[in-house]
Target: Disulfide bond formation protein B
Amino acid sequence: MANDQRLYDINSACMLVVVSVLLGAFYFQFGLHEDPCPLCLLQRMGMIGVILGLAMNTQFGFHRLHFAAVNLAALVGAMFSIRQVLLHICPVAGEPSGYGDAFFGMHLYSWGVLVFAASILGSSILLTLVNEKPPESTRKQSMFEQIVFHLAALVCFANVVSTFALCSFGPCH
Model:
């Protein structure tokens, strides 16, 4: 199957979903004034890794190593999400369960597990659909691809800045 524009748009749509999750985390951080915990920051780094792998597909063409980067970042992020789920699975009597407010009945780290699992599944499905060859030098990115790529770059940079503002050069507490 040739790599037509639809596959690049699907790749960009997947990237937009993960960017939306990071924007939601920003809303919790700045809108609801809930500072992220260290495990939350590590999960964000996993999502940034997923975005980077998907962005490499749009910029350099589909390649199995780009999908491997997505899957590796998603596995690492899922590991941190599952760790946090397990920390809060049996709350102490009389204390609130979980960290932060719930969103549609689940905490953000529980949603993280689902986002990372969907990233692995989506990346694996896309890998079966694409033809691994470098894009033609004449391939023009769609406006959608360009907007999503620049939005993703902005959100990733904002995450780095906000994490540095929160933690400086030392460990986060």
